[in-house]
Every structure is written in C-alpha cells, then in structure tokens.
Amino acid sequence: MAVREEIVWRSAVVYFVLTVLAIALIVQILILQYVQRGKWSAMSEKYVFKTAEMPANRGDILSWDGRLLASSVPYYSIYMDTRSSGMTAETWSSGISGLSEGLSRLIGVRSAAGWRSVITEARKRGDRYFLISKKVDYATLKKLRELPIFREGQFKGGLVAQPESKRILPHNELAARTIGYLNQSTEGTQVGLEGSFNKELAGKNGLVVKQRLTGGDWIIVNDGESVESKDGNDIVTTIDVELQDVASSALETQLRKHNAHHGCAVLMEVETGDIRAIANLESRGDGSFHETYNYAIAESTEPGSTFKLASLMAAIEDGVIDTGDIVDTGNGKVKFYDKIIRDTKEEGYGKISVKQVFEKSSNVGTSIIINKYYKDNPKDFVNRLYAMKLNQQLDIQIKGEGVPLIRYPGDKYWSGLSLPMMSHGYEVQMTPLQILTFYNAVANDGKMIRPRFVTSILRNGSVVKNFGTEVIINSIASRNTIRKAKAMMEGVVEHGTATNLKNSNYKIAGKTGTAQIALNNKGYRQRVSYQASFVGYFPAENPLYSCIVVVNAPSNGVYYGNIVAGSVFKEISDKVYATRFFRDYRAESKEDKDMKPTAPEAGNGLRSDINEVLGELDVRYKKTSKEEWVATRESGDTIRLVGVSLKEGLVPDVRGMSLRDAVYLLENSGLRVRYSGKGRVLRQSPEHGARVYEGSVVSLDMNM
C-alpha cells in the first residue's frame, strides 16, 4: 500500500509540474503574441526590412541648343525569381535552354551549360532573387526581356530589374570642370554647375521599403508606405558644343606644342555675357591633358601686359594723357629705386605716342606714364581702377571664383614700386574671366556684363525660371575713353604685337600679355616661368564675341602671348566667323541672293498654303521649284517661291513660318521645340544648317 501511495504521490507531483509548465508556456505565448507582439515584430523587421531613400532622377544639364552635357543614365541589377507564382513547369522546361544560351550571349561570365546549371540549382533551392548581373544597361535589358521564360514578364517569367543610375558626360571632357560633379565619397565636395545648381538638379528623394536577401543584398518590395520621389529640374547652359570642341582642341594643340603645364580659353558673347565655350586643360605629365581645375574662374595671377589697358584708360579718363601724347621710352630701360623695368626690344622704342606704347606693349612707357601722373596721389589711380570694378568678384553662377587683388595705398605691402609695377600687370592679381569681363565691357561700349553660364531652369520641358543678362555697371568709362581704348586695341593687331592675327575677312582687336611667374615663392630671380595670354574681341568694327586665352608655363623656348595664346584665339575666332556670321542663305544661287524676302502676309511654309494666301492677296508669283515647303522672295514686281532645303541630319530653316508649320518640320527632324511670342518665326536657335543631335532643342522667337 505504501508503494502504491508513493507512486500516486510521485505521479501527482509530475502532473502538477507539467501542468504548471504548460500554463507558464501558454502564458508566455500569450505575452509574446499579444503583449510583446509589436516589440518582436519591429525587431524582426529591423533585420529583414528597412526603409531607405529612393534617389530622385537627377536633372539634365543642357547646352544652349538643348544637347545633353550631363545626364543620369539608368542601369539595372537583374535578378530571377525562380519560384515566381505564375511560372509553370511547362514554361520552365521549354525555355531553360534558350534562356541559358541567351544569358551566355548577353551577360557572358559562363557558358550556356554553366548558366543552366546555376539557375537550375537556384530553382531547387527556391531562390526568389537569384542575381543574374549588376549594372546592365537599358539596351541589354530590352534584349533580356526577349529571352525565353523572361519574356513572360516578372510574375510568369521571374525577371526582376532593379533600376539605378549613373552620371555621364556625353561629350566626355568638353567643359567637364565647368559642368562639374558631386563627390559622394568626400563630404561637401561640389564642383561646377553640378554643385552650384545642386538644389535644382537633385529633386526630392522618395522612400521605399527594402527586404534583405540571402547573401546580404537588398531588394525593393512593393509596400503601401513607399513615397514617390520628385525628379530634379533641367538647367540650360550657354555652352555651344561645337565652339567648345574648337576651343578645347585648339588649346590642347598649343599646350602640347609648347610643352605647357596648363591653360584656359573662354569665349563670351559681348551683349549678353553668355559663355559659349570655356576650356581648362592641365598636363598630366604623361602626354595627356585633362580638365582637372577651372583655371579660367579660380586662378588669380598677375596678368602682365593685358592689365595695361586698364592703366592707360584710367589716365585717359582722368585727362592726364591722350593717345597722341609722346612718351620717351629711351633705350628700353627705366629704373625705379632698385628695380629696372625693361622693354622686350633691347634698344628700346625711343619717343613714341601713348597709342604706340600700348600697341608695342612698352613696359617702360606704361610705367613712366602712371608713375609720372599718379606718384603724388596714387589713390587717384587705384580709385579709378576700383571705379571700373576691377577689385570686385564677378559673383558668377559657379562657386569658387578667385579673388582679385588690387592693393590700396597704405596697405602694408604698398611701396614706391607699386605704381610702376601695377601699371603693367604686376602686384595685381585677376582671373582670366575677370580680365575678359573688363575687355568685354570695352567691346560693349563701356557696359560691363556679368558672365552668364545658365539661362534657364526647365521642368518637363517648360521654363520655370529664367536668368536674364545682368549689368554690373552701365559704363566703366566715358565714350571718349572707350573709343580710344578700342582704337588702341585694333592697333595691336594692325601694326603692334599681334600682327600675326591679321586677316582679310574680319578685324580682331585685343592685347597680348607675357607675364613672368615666380615659382616656389623664390621671387623673380630664381625659377622664373611665363604666362602667355591674348584677350580681345571680334569683329572689331561690330563686336559680337570676346575671348581670352591664357597658357601657363610654356617650356619650349617660345612664350610670347601673340604666338602661344594668340594662335588659339584666332582658331576660335575663325571658326565662329565661318559658322556663325555667314550661314544665312549660303546655298542659294546668285539669282536667289539678289531677291529680297517679302510678302509678310504670306510668309514661308507649305506650298499649298502659300499659293492660297497669295491668290487671296491677288499677288503675282512664279513657281521656281517643286519643293513642298517654300519661302517667298521678291523679284521685281512679282513674287518667286523658292524651295526650302530639307536635308536629313540638319536643322531646317523655319524663319517666316507659322508656329504650326515650324513645329511640324522641326519635330519631324527629331527636334524638340521651345518658343516665345506669337505670329511667325523671326529667329531660330540653332540656326538652319546646324547638325541635328538626338534630344536637341530649337528655340523660336516669334515676331509678335
């Protein structure tokens, strides 16, 4: 009996313990399921799911005529859901061979048999996101979508394409430093237009939910909590791709020829300040040249003789000299304290006029003039330079502009040598763009214009913000001084230091510069290098463009500005002259050239429409061509219909057409159209005959 009781007691204890454990387990399950559910769910999702930013598509940077300068190009990470819900066994068995062969052909990496093996193993494992390849471009993705199995789509064929993007420069290094970049690995590094207009280009990032895959990769999943991103805006620059190419190639040729360290070239429209080309090239030491630094904008150096224009204009404006006054330059040497200033002509120029001092770039003559008339009151000279805004930054649309240096009397570095040295471009510092802006003001009859790099911001092709031409100062000097400054600059090319730039087609006005550069902070007596420059404008009689070229440290024995920099200037100006000034109706016959455009009521356009309008106006006309699109020309007391040339790959001439006709022709040529005003087309940009590039935009100005 005792044994039986002991067994019953022990059984009761065991039963009790098991009951308590069961109750405890049930309670713990209830706690986990209801009380701590949120905590553990969040912890689980923390390691399996995460919320991440979905970068917005960055806006494009466009040339003045709509060509891409910088763009974000999509690429894709390709996965395969080997167990997608809609994939049937029949689809798999019938398509695996073709899929494997296609992957071997398009992706490579392994043979068709190899692809078949790894995909089959992935299917056996039940992989939902088996990685096929990363960084696949869109063209390849399109071909992948045509392969067996994949062509059934994501749910039946298992093809998963995760989009990403990378920034590209379609024209490679053309204006690369000005276009700029964002360095994601270096906090805060923003360069060029990419940096200055980052807010406009970046857009607004969205939010997506990502799921972690086996192996550590993350995949985007469809989730109601996702927030769509807002794509960035496009910016339209002033850069002309064709002229940029000319500037870059001409500059590189001279840098290579003269074994120079670096150089820059900038082309600017006189009236608008639009920068049409800006090249910055530096030698890598291995025979190659690259855009590594924006010398035109950021490098402040002693400009040398190009500063003489400001010095002599100050003296002319103050009335202390005139261009016809005679200056005795002696034997080409003059001593100020312990400093001897020399002219390049060893025996000197003797007695010459102020105009000749400038034309021959006489250091002696310039320093004598400025020292003579301002030594007793140097503030007058510096104040005149300040009045011409030469001591101020330009406040341009790109960050990183160099600071100009023009010391004021009383500065701790001011000395008795300051005036004669400043007069010919030493003890002052300016960037190439600042020098160009000053010369551009002279070309623009005294009006100083702020250089412009961006004209507008676009959203979905529509302008949301315009950047107009900005005037820094209405006049840097009197009309009389400007007129004499222009005459001096024309004289430099006609019979001065830049006669090698003369040509019979158009006149150039400008100034050569050859400055000594002290290396390694050792002064000018040791390790001297040179900076060659030429700055000016053209055509001299009606300035449309200004340009500066600066070449630093040429080392093959030739370092004068007219040779080293002037040749680059002339190659650029010749190209502009050939492609911009004489394009209109070049292909017309002499008979057509003698006829004037007329009949504004009829305009230009579709032949049938023009015939109808001329008939209603009771205007006599002759048919001289059979083209579908025509332009009206006056010939005596009749009108002639001249065919409008439509050549594949070239921008058609739509001037005089209605907006409807112009848009029809341009869009059929693969172009996008922007217009302002109404009526008929008065101007178009780019002009007719320019090459058509995919995505190019043609701007139309209407006559009303």
What does the model show?
- This protein has 704 residues and is an alpha+beta fold.
- The model is unreliable at 582-602 (pLDDT under 50).
- A hairpin with a 6-residue loop joins strand 25 and strand 26 (545-552).
- It contains 23 helices and 34 strands.
- The longest helix is centred in the N-terminal third of the chain and has 34 residues, at 2-35.
- The protein is elongated.
- Strands 2, 3, 4, 5, 10, 21 and 22 form a seven-stranded mixed beta sheet that branches.
- The chain folds into three domains: 53-174 and 206-234, Penicillin-binding protein 2a (Domain 2); 244-581, DD-peptidase/beta-lactamase superfamily (Beta-lactamase, 3-Layer(aba) Sandwich), CATH 3.40.710.10; 592-702, Trypsin Inhibitor V, Chain A, CATH 3.30.10.20.
- Helix content is 34%, strand content 25%.
- Helix 3 (89-106) crosses helix 4, helix 12 (308-317) runs parallel beside helix 14 (363-374) and helix 12 (308-317) packs antiparallel against helix 18 (479-495).
Whole-number total of structural domains: 3
Total helical elements: 23
The helix/strand class is alpha+beta
CATH class of the largest domain: Alpha Beta
Q: Output mean pLDDT.
A: 85
General form = elongated
Termini separation: 121 Å
Poorly predicted segments = 582-602
**In which range does the helix fraction lie?**
25-40%
- The total count of strands amounts to 34
Q: Sheet with the most strands? A: 7 strands, mixed
CATH fold node name of the largest domain: Beta-lactamase
Strand-residue fraction?
25-35%
CATH superfamily of the largest domain: DD-peptidase/beta-lactamase superfamily
Calculate Rg over CA atoms: 36 Å
Q: Examine the secondary-structure arrangement and name the CATH architecture of the largest domain.
A: 3-Layer(aba) Sandwich
